[in-house]
Design a protein that fits this description.
This protein is of the alpha/beta class. Helix content is about 30%, strand content about 20%. It contains 21 helices and 26 strands. A 7-stranded mixed β-barrel has the order 20-21-22-23-26-25-24. Strands 5-4-3-6-7 form a 5-stranded parallel β-sheet, covered by helices on one side. A 5-stranded parallel β-sheet has the order 17-16-15-18-19, with helices on one face. The two termini are about 35 Å apart.
Length: about 650
């Protein structure tokens, strides 16, 4: 067990129950929650289903930042529901136009030493301010709002010792890309990354937040920095100095693993298509033509990032061979850019200014042309996430992005021949919370439910015997984007029957039934659907629809070599059994359409015990399978009941 770390101190202060042994379940009290509109509607429907009159956290906030495009009534219907249910349940409401949840939360609500649970996988952004901020499925967040503790595996703590100082044109984004090169996107479940060392003091809170934000791509539970003088300065500049509390690791803190990173040695990097851990130096990519540059997202849309871009672009013009679009992370950032003339500089250089929201990061507009390189300061570049099939999306820092915008190709920003803009710390941010609607003491209105707002579906208790049909077999690193596409389909999230029709849409083939049709046919025949995956199944976002919609279609089990943390928890919450192959060769043996039979499944499911199954091939041959799981007694109770809403 890692001792004397910031992680241990926060867990100790919020400890409720469980064994403090790495991997064992431990329950912690949650201080704050956040939701965003793409996941929040279902989370609040689930909270209503629990018959909770008012949230029981210190602070809960509902943000609208994902489904901003209003092509049809669905998204605005969700916004009206979210605003009214927030008023009814004692929740702050941040409307469309106020900014991205993680950026706004860092600015206006985050506090060192607090626990934050958010229905978005990039909630760890709050780790930049010294919070233990964790992404989770909407149902887990609803339970936290209801006053229930959150259970996580007691973590191993990966200590990252930073030394030195970033050189000009080398960025915090390059630090986290270096981390992805070291740790990759898989194999880190059950760990938390904690940064320490003399290099920490050289990084501002926005830089730290960039690193913790994209730490989500590592597959760890969260990432965090200590709370120090830089933290205090940021909070005081936001008019929230009273929220500051110092929080650092002990000098003799013990970590389960230590990684050394010399900031002086960091160079401009890029994550290449189509995974955040496919890292190359910009020098290796030099000269590659670029057709689109997008700057923003919850990773790189702070005032510091956009002020740097505006300073570089002032008096210059973007390359005619590409388009440049910029999305400020919050209304505060946009107001600052407008007030000091930087917004005019961006517009004069040829930048297109987008809404203060997630936008193209989740496929909401700005899809690139076919066969075009898109350079983005975002956090994910999964295949097709841009909205263009066969896309070529690269993830870079704002420094590298603006260099590409000027030259029309990948260019090491250090070779631009431009003096590096030193953006000073902001001494006083302009604070205007007039759009943030605080909770009312007594709600006497009505919760608005338009026709597109559905209800969270309920599952049936787990059957005694599993008569499973392998509806689909997929490979490594299947993301929640593969399972539940975003983009144009995102507006369907309040309508489970409609959204379920596009499960695994990317694997559908012309001329044959879709995954949804095959799964529904298995369900309607009285049998049980099974999904078979390989390594790192379910990586990516926190979207619980990747469990809800398969559950609606009759999926009862997911069997893989490894299942990522948030998705595994979502499967449990909705009564789908997450099982693991004991022998990787068994994965190779299974084919789509094969039967996987597990007799007395309810009886076999015991903590730490294997599960005996039989694989029946299409020709009638049978093979024994030994499956395993990491389910706790509480997990099993939920699964046997058919999901948390049945408990």
């Amino acid at each position: 067990m890692a001792r004397g770390t910031v992680v241990q101190k926060i867990i100790d202060r919020h400890y409720v129950s469980g064994d403090k042994i790495a991997g064992a379940p431990v329950a912690v009290r949650i201080d704050q929650t956040l939701t965003q509109d793409a996941t929040g509607t279902m989370a609040y429907l689930e909270l209503e289903a629990m018959r909770v009159d008012r949230v029981r956290t210190e602070l809960s906030i509902s943000y609208v930042d994902h489904n901003m495009m209003q092509n049809g009534p669905e998204n605005r219907n969700d916004h009206l529901y979210l605003q009214s249910v927030a008023a009814a349940k004692g929740v702050y409401f941040s409307p469309p136009g106020n900014g991205i949840c993680h950026q706004v939360h860092l600015e206006r609500f985050g506090a060192p030493g607090k626990t934050l649970l958010g229905s978005d996988s990039h909630t760890p952004t709050g780790g930049g301010i010294g919070m233990m901020a964790i992404g989770a499925g909407g149902l887990d967040v609803a339970l936290a709002m209801a006053g229930r503790p959150f259970t996580l595996p007691y973590p191993k703590v990966i200590g990252v010792r930073l030394s030195g100082r970033l050189r000009p044109w080398c960025a915090a984004k390059d630090v986290v890309l270096k981390m992805l090169e070291i740790l990759t996107t898989r194999g880190n479940v059950g760990s938390i990354v904690e940064y320490f060392g003399p290099g920490v003091a050289t990084l501002s809170v926005p830089q730290r937040a960039t690193i913790t934000n994209m730490g989500a791509e590592l597959g760890v539970t969260t990432s965090l920095f200590p709370s120090d003088d830089r933290t205090r300065q940021f909070l005081e500049a936001q008019g929230r100095g009273a929220a500051f509390t110092p929080l650092t690791a002990d000098p003799d803190a013990e970590y389960d693993r230590v990684i050394e990173i010399d900031l002086d040695a960091i160079v401009p990097l890029a994550a290449c298509p189509s995974s955040p851990d496919q890292i190359k130096t910009i020098e290796e990519l030099r000269g590659t033509p670029v057709g689109q540059v997008l700057i923003g997202s919850c990773t790189n849309s702070s005032f510091r990032d956009l002020a740097l871009v505006a300073t570089v672009l002032k008096g210059r013009t973007v390359s005619p061979d590409l388009t440049l679009a910029i999305a400020p992370g919050s209304r505060q950032v946009l107001e600052m850019l407008a007030g000091n003339g930087m917004l005019a500089d961006l517009i004069a250089a040829g930048a297109r200014i987008l809404e203060t929201g997630c936008g193209p990061c989740i496929g909401q507009g700005q899809s690139p042309a076919d066969d075009t390189v898109s350079v983005r300061t975002f956090n994910r570049n999964f295949a097709g996430r841009t909205g263009t099939k066969g896309d070529r999306a690269y993830l870079v820092s704002p420094e590298t992005a603006v260099a590409a915008a000027l030259t029309g190709c990948f260019t090491d920003p250090r070779s631009l021949g431009i003096d590096y803009p030193e953006i000073p710390e902001v001494e006083q941010f302009p604070v205007n919370d007039n759009l943030i609607i605080p909770p009312v003491a007594h709600f006497d209105g009505e919760i608005i439910r338009k026709r597109t707002i559905g209800e969270p579906p309920l599952n049936q208790p787990l059957p005694e015997d599993l008569d499973g049909v392998t509806v689909i077999k997929v490979g490594d690193k299947i993301t929640t984007d593969h399972i539940m596409p975003a983009g144009v389909h995102l507006k369907l999230r309040s309508n489970i029957p409609a959204y379920s029709k596009v499960v695994f849409e990317c694997f559908n083939e012309p001329g044959r039934p879709t995954f949804a049709e095959r799964a529904a046919a298995v369900r309607d025949a009285g049998r049980h659907g099974v999904i078979v995956g390989r390594d790192s199944y379910g990586q990516g976002s926190s979207r619980e629809h990747a469990a809800i919609c398969p559950m609606y279609l009759g999926i009862k089990a997911v069997i893989a070599l490894a299942i990522e943390r948030i998705h595994r928890a979502n499967l449990v919450n909705f009564g789908i059994v997450p099982l693991l192959f004991s022998d990787p060769a068994d994965y190779d043996r299974v084919a789509e359409g094969d039967t996987i039979r597990i007799e007395k499944l309810r009886t076999q499911l015991q903590p730490g015990k294997p599960v005996a199954a039989v694989l029946v091939k299409a020709d009638g041959r049978e093979f024994p399978l030994t499956l395993k799981h990491t389910l706790s007694a509480r997990d099993l109770e939920i699964i046997l009941a058919g999901g948390m809403l049945n408990c």
